[in-house]
Amino acid sequence: MNKYPRVGIGTIITYNNKVLLGKRKNSHGTGCWCFPGGHLEYSETFVDCAIRETYEETGLKIENIQQIALTNDFFVEENKHYITIFMQATVDQSQVQLKEPDKCEYWQWFDWNDLPSPLFLPIKNLLLQKYNPFKQGKTN
């Protein structure tokens, strides 16, 4: 059996100088904090995936969506390999719904310089790229 990497989309949602993170459960990375996101579906654009996954998980309607970075993530213990495409978006309000309680414990807004721990592997890899959603000249 051939194994291939899966493609995941993570959406960095900014509001009031904070980013939205959820605490994962019932999947690889259980107990880790991550951005809204999920698997890219066949023939889906990155933007459409970010919109769909964010709404399915949080009820938020995102705007100003742009692709900003990608990571190559090897989950050794789970024997999984993902290419994670990071998108960035804004919202005009911060009321988040927990729409998939079987996949996420809760959502919370955090200051970029005070992120919680443990972070999901793709976010750790993104941070190694020195990415900051609040600075001009973002790193890709």
Give a description of the structure.
By secondary structure, the protein is an alpha+beta fold. The chain has two helices and seven strands. Strands 1, 2, 3, 4, 5, 6 and 7 form a seven-stranded mixed β-sheet that branches. A hairpin with a 4-residue loop joins strand 5 and strand 6 (80-90). The longest helix has 13 residues, at 46-58. The mean pLDDT is 94.
Give the end-to-end Cα distance, rounded to a whole number of Å. 33 Å
> Overall 3D geometry?
globular
Approximate strand percentage:
35-45%
Number of strands: 7
Mean pLDDT: 94
The tally of helices reads 2
Order of helices and strands: EEEEHEEEH
Q: What is Rg?
A: 14 Å
The level of helicity is 10-25%
Structural class: alpha+beta
Task: Report the sheet with the most strands, covering strand number, pairing sense and barrel closure.
Answer: 7 strands, mixed
Low-confidence stretches: none
Short description:
The chain has helices at residues 46-58, 121-128; strands at residues 6-15, 18-24, 33-34, 37-39, 63-75, 80-90, 104-110.
Structural features:
alpha+beta; 2 helices; 140 residues
Helices, strands, pairings?
Blueprint: E1 6-15, E2 18-24, E3 33-34, E4 37-39, H1 46-58, E5 63-75, E6 80-90, E7 104-110, H2 121-128
Parallel strand pairs: 1-6
Antiparallel strand pairs: 1-2, 1-4, 2-3, 2-7, 5-6
